[in-house]
Design goal:
The complex is a heterodimer of chains A (315) and B (387).
Chain A (H helix, E strand, L loop, with lengths): L12 E10 L2 E11 L4 E5 L6 H9 L6 E6 L2 E3 L5 H5 L1 E4 L11 H11 L4 H14 L15 H13 L5 E5 L7 H16 L3 E5 L3 H7 L2 E6 L2 E6 L1 H9 L3 E7 L13 E3 L2 E6 L2 H14 L4 E7 L3 H9 L6
Parallel strand pairs in A: 3-8, 3-9, 6-7, 7-8
Antiparallel strand pairs in A: 1-2, 1-4, 4-5, 9-10, 11-13, 11-14, 12-13
Helix pairs in contact in A: 3-4, 3-5, 5-6, 8-10
Chain B lengths: L1 H14 L1 H22 L10 E7 L4 H12 L3 E5 L5 H13 L5 E5 L17 E5 L4 H23 L4 H5 L8 E5 L5 H25 L2 H8 L1 H6 L5 H31 L6 H28 L3 H19 L10 H7 L3 H15 L7 H22 L6
Parallel strand pairs in B: 1-2, 1-3, 4-5
Antiparallel strand pairs in B: 3-4
Helix pairs in contact in B: 2-12, 3-5, 7-10, 7-11, 7-12, 7-14, 10-11, 10-15, 11-12, 11-14, 11-15, 12-13, 12-14, 14-15
The chains are: A alpha/beta (315), B alpha/beta (387).
Chain lengths: 315, 387
């Protein structure tokens, strides 16, 4: 089966009604979505929501019980087609590298397993070493590398064969802020060079700041999909977060059960800011307090995520 | 505080079944095997020796001696009937070489000359044996001596009072002839090279096959299986490496045996037999190693399970001591082990010097073991795909 990309305007990936069951556990229950070319989607969900199963199904590591996949408009079975897998790259959550090999040797191994040979392989290895800032340590065993260096190499090994769809499972776990920023830049470069990304993470701030769109998976089903501000508007339906700084710590001030106080700061939310805010300010004034500053904001991704998936522990 | 640490040790041991097995079960299994082997070395419990008897002296003394031998419970006598003395002797030798009998006894004409004062020198009774099992020849000679003494008493009639007080010198002489091996020391080197080589072959490949577990634990397996390589190809790649590693390891062992201990490796027959046996042994060991790795979830588990299984197989299969020392039951049980078939093959090459065609049973069994373990490993490894 040839899988040349004939229709570059078609979605990079279409997933339709994918189901997967493990014994009594319905790991995926009719998941459908579309990934556009050069789109960067954040995949969120509590532990056990089905994120890894979904990624594994797309990558061809698992055969779903039901469902269809299309890559650039062509129907494919990634678990059965190595050519389809050639268009995909997967970055596992673990540092999936051979620790006794050097950076160059790791790149060569995974490049060969993805069909690269000869001069093409050497050229891509050189590119990857430069891309990851590891050229100066290319021939050292990676066991001595820092967490950030290993993470960058972990990503490079997955994209050496220039996949058009890259699946990233927690690509920045355990990396310091500078290292995370470097990885985000690398991923941005990948996207600018034509790749589409699905990025699974528990770092909500990271997803909010990097991804074009967010999908939230819970108990095997996709419960929300869209831009973060869209989701917030839809879910919160006018809900706004209010942060108030008082001139002194309030004592016996009652702003309703949605407000909490810590020192001079009060935090809470209102459903109808136009009607509720004047009422709140009146109560504050009656209590003999002054408002030093007042901030009204839309809920962030964490609020959306908690609102959709609940706050209870899932493990 | 100390009690907390003590309890911690107990909890870890209690929940680590492999460690428990290594601590309590393996020693018992080993003790039982050694006790069964060496505890049965007293003659009362020995199996009767399969004995071919060539009776060249057809006279009444020879017949009587044969009858007494047939009555001896420690011997299971098969008389050789042949057209000529040479043919009978040849048949006896071949029977021992084919391992269809433990020992041969040739009673020559004139063996009893010492019983009467004829002035003739008594001909020695020959014990035809395979010196691969030195115990058998010694045992057979001892039994012969005892039977010969009975014959002496019979032939001399009632023993005089005085003879009871004097040591009775046997009028018979015995000669042990090795009809198989020709250089005991060098062949013993071949035996130990094979025995130790096969045991460490198993240890080496099972240890290296842990790469499958490393790949699963590190996530490399997911990355590999998401590439163009399938699970079957991955397993075959690992198997091929382990088989080549095993081949090289055993070769190094035998070359060392040649360099340091004079093992006769460089004849065409020995070399070709060695190559065939090492190739199939390494192939089977590699498949077995991967099977163990696919059964285990962690490296620690693999190390424990490998130690238990390989040590027991090596004890039963003849890597630690020759299987001829074992009682029949253990010998048969040993055939369930990889070691026994590999060692039998090496013994045929270096000791019995049979041709390649005679290695067929060992080669077929080891190839079958390879295929079966690879297929089972492929089935077990499918669960590695589950997230």
């Amino acid at each position: 089966m040839s899988l040349a990309i004939e229709d570059s305007t078609a979605p990079a990936l279409s997933v339709r009604h994918v189901c997967k069951r493990f014994g009594d556990l319905q790991a995926l229950d009719g998941v459908s979505f579309v990934l556009k070319p050069q789109e960067w989607i954040g995949l969120l969900g509590p532990n056990g929501a089905g994120k890894t199963t979904l990624m594994s199904s797309i990558a061809g590591l698992l055969q779903p019980d039901e469902g269809e996949f299309e890559l650039f408009g062509q129907r494919v079975s990634p678990w059965a087609s190595s050519r389809a897998r050639a268009l995909l790259g997967i970055v596992p959550q673990e540092i999936a590298l051979y620790s006794l090999l050097s950076a160059r040797e790791n790149l060569e191994v995974f490049g060969r397993l993805n069909g690269l040979t000869g001069a093409d392989l050497q050229q891509r290895v050189q590119w990857a070493l430069g891309w990851t800032d590891l050229a100066s340590r290319a021939d050292e065993q990676i066991a001595a590398f820092s967490g950030g260096m290993k993470r960058r190499l972990n990503i490079a090994c997955a994209v050496l064969h220039e996949p058009r769809v890259v699946l990233l499972d927690e690509p920045t776990v355990g990396v310091d802020p500078q290292g995370r920023r470097r990885i985000w830049d690398m991923l941005d470069e990948l996207r600018n060079n034509g790749a589409s990304l699905i990025h699974s993470s528990h770092q909500l701030q990271e997803i909010e700041s990097t991804c074009d769109r967010v999908m939230i998976l819970d108990r095997g089903s996709l419960v929300a999909s869209g831009r973060v501000d869209e989701l917030a508007d839809t879910l919160a339906a006018g809900l706004r977060t209010v942060t108030i700084l008082f001139n002194r710590a309030p004592e016996a001030l009652d702003l309703g059960e949605r407000f909490t106080f810590q020192g001079r700061i009060g935090e809470g939310s209102v459903r109808d800011a136009g009607r509720e805010l004047p009422e709140l300010l009146g109560r504050i004034s009656s209590a003999g307090l002054e408002v030093v500053s007042l901030e009204v904001s839309t809920p962030d991704l964490e609020a959306v995520f908690s609102g959709l998936t609940g706050a209870e522990l899932r493990e | 505080m100390i009690w907390t640490i003590f309890r911690l040790g107990w909890l870890h041991l209690k929940r680590d079944r492999v460690a428990l097995a290594l601590t309590f079960i393996l020693p018992i299994v080993f003790f039982s095997i050694f006790a069964a082997v060496f505890g049965d070395l007293d003659t009362e419990h020995l199996e009767a020796l399969d004995t071919v008897l060539v009776l060249e002296d057809q006279g009444p003394t020879g017949e009587r001696f044969a009858t007494l031998l047939e009555q001896e419970p420690a011997l299971r006598i098969q008389r050789v009937e042949a057209e000529s003395i040479n043919a009978a002797r040849h048949f006896a030798v071949e029977t021992i070489r084919q391992q269809e009998a433990d020992v041969g006894i040739v009673i020559p004409v004139g063996f009893a000359a010492g019983l009467v004062e004829s002035g003739e020198e008594a001909q020695a009774i020959e014990v035809l044996a395979d010196s691969a099992n030195p115990l058998v020849a010694e045992l057979a000679t001892g039994i012969l001596g005892s039977v010969a003494l009975r014959l002496t008493f019979e032939q001399l009639g009632v023993i005089e009072q005085s003879s009871g007080r004097e040591a009775l010198e046997s009028p018979f002489t015995f000669e042990i002839a090795d009809v198989v091996g020709n250089d005991t020391d060098k062949s013993a080197v071949a035996f130990f090279s094979a025995g130790i080589g096969v045991m460490f072959l198993l240890f080496a490949v099972s240890g290296r096959s842990g790469i499958l577990i490393d790949e699963k634990e590190s996530g490399v397996l997911r990355r590999i299986l998401a590439s163009r390589l399938g699970l079957g190809q991955l397993l075959l790649g690992h198997w091929l490496f382990l088989a080549v590693l095993g081949f090289v390891q055993v070769t190094v062992m035998f070359v060392w045996g040649w360099a340091a201990f004079g093992l006769d490796l460089w004849t065409a027959d020995h070399l070709s037999g060695f190559v065939v046996m090492t190739a199939v042994s390494a192939a089977a060991a590699a498949a077995f190693g991967l099977f163990l790795a696919s059964l285990c979830r962690t490296r620690i588990q693999l190390a424990g399970v490998s130690a238990v299984v390989i040590l027991v197989m090596s004890a039963l299969g003849g890597s630690m001591f020759p299987r001829y020392l074992m009682p029949e039951g253990l010998k048969k049980l040993g055939l369930l082990t990889f070691n026994a078939w590999a060692l039998d093959g090496y013994q045929k090459v270096f000791w019995y010097e049979t041709g390649l065609a005679d290695l067929k049973p060992q080669v077929l069994v080891l190839l079958m073991v390879t295929v079966v373990f690879l297929l089972v490993t492929r089935m077990l490894a499918a669960r590695l795909m589950r997230p």
